[in-house]
Design brief:
Elements: E1 27-32, H1 43-53, E2 57-61, H2 74-91, E3 97-103, H3 105-117, E4 118-119, E5 139-140, E6 144-151, H4 171-192, H5 204-207, E7 211-212, E8 215-216, H6 217-223, E9 226-232, H7 241-245, E10 266-272, H8 290-299, E11 304-309, H9 320-323, H10 336-344
Parallel strand pairs: 1-2, 1-3, 3-6, 6-9, 9-11
Antiparallel strand pairs: 4-5, 7-8, 10-11
Helix pairs in contact: 1-10, 2-3, 3-6
């Protein structure tokens, strides 16, 4: 499919009217793969959703940004995904709700897309201010926003210390990676390492922790009933624990081996409530790095359910970034309990 950059965006028809009563599933679940990925990456997850919630959800695995197209940039991919979602909505007039489940870079692409798709709530008074509060939700292209779930997604980017574990936390190597990452991963690499400055604008990930022009990133994120970040606590060599769980180093929890036989790889869970600007007063700008702190503060303005995962006893622990998603149903089957946890806690 062709690029849908900012200038190529075309608004589709208004949100569809509700379908007839008893018309079947009315909840669209959009599953988004990561970099150099494809629809096959979510095959197991999609099958489980369909198996356990078949009469309640319609699962769509995004196919608009596969393989090399994932190198075009988070913004370009986000525009494509937004257009794809609109097409899916228009094909299914019975759909009333929408949720996203996204792996790795797909989580950032989904965050961009919902910023494009967001529709503000109808205001009862012209003087009523817009704010990030629970009773001021808008919609995603006219649909009720329910679950926004990311799996090992680098919300704080990949630039900070140990954000990409396979660089060993060596500053010189990390700095060198910032200089050459675009040669490997194109514009997407620039976005991840926060080195983009298109037309003098701040890095894209910094813009995405606020509402920016007609892209209402944070209002869209706030519109969902719940936001969930699944993270690998160790052995994920692609995305570090801090960036995927939206925490500072000092906030990373102590965890122990779980005793829950249903979810043997879930080692820690917590609900992080939305924070106000006043709660950030005691956090020094020099904590980690100023830009990373800005991203973190922006994302902490909404609540997050944080689910920490460990495959440290697994023979395939070195592939944790793929196991947590069950990218391959045979090789990565130990991550099945993470998918089950996701479905068991899914709001319909």
């Amino acid at each position: 499919m062709g690029d849908l950059g900012g200038g190529g965006w075309q608004e589709a028809a208004p949100a569809p009217a509700p379908g007839p009563a008893g018309g079947g599933a009315d909840h669209l679940v959009v599953m988004v793969h990561g970099i150099v990925g494809s629809t096959a990456d979510w095959k197991f997850g999609a099958e489980q959703f369909d198996k356990l919630l078949s009469d309640k959800v319609i699962v769509h695995c995004s196919n608009r940004n596969m393989h090399k197209l994932t190198l075009d940039g988070i913004d370009v991919m986000g525009e494509r995904l937004a257009q794809e979602v609109i097409e899916q909505i228009n094909r299914r007039p019975q759909v009333k709700k929408i949720s996203f489940v996204a792996h790795s870079v797909g989580g950032l692409v989904a965050r961009y897309a919902i910023g494009r798709l967001y529709r503000p709530p109808i205001q009862t008074s012209q003087s009523a201010p817009q704010s990030l509060c629970q009773n001021n939700r808008g919609t995603i292209h006219g649909l009720e926003a329910v679950n926004f779930i990311t799996v090992a997604s680098p919300h704080l980017g990949s630039r900070g210390n140990k954000q990409v574990p396979f660089l060993f936390g060596v500053t010189a190597i990390e700095n060198f990676a910032c200089c050459i990452i675009h040669l490997i991963f194109g514009r997407t690499g620039k976005h991840l390492f926060l080195t983009d400055n298109d037309d003098g604008k701040p890095p894209l990930l910094q813009r995405m922790v606020d509402d920016w022009g007609d892209l209402q990133f944070m209002s869209a994120l706030q519109a969902f009933k719940r936001r969930v970040a699944y993270s690998n606590v160790d052995h994920d060599h692609i995305v570090g624990w801090r960036t995927s769980s939206i925490r500072r180093d000092s906030e990373l929890p102590q965890w122990v081996d779980p005793r829950n036989k249903t979810y043997p790889h879930i080692v820690y869970e917590e609900l992080s409530k939305a924070e106000t600007l006043g709660q950030f007063a005691d956090v020094a700008d020099s904590d980690n790095c100023t830009l990373e702190e800005r991203l973190l503060r922006g994302l902490q303005r909404v609540s997050w359910e944080k689910v920490d995962v460990s495959f440290h006893n697994s023979k395939v622990r070195s592939a944790a970034h793929s196991v947590i998603q069950v990218k391959d149903p045979v090789m990565h089957c130990e991550g099945a309990d993470v998918i089950k946890h996701m479905i068991d806690h899914f709001i319909l």
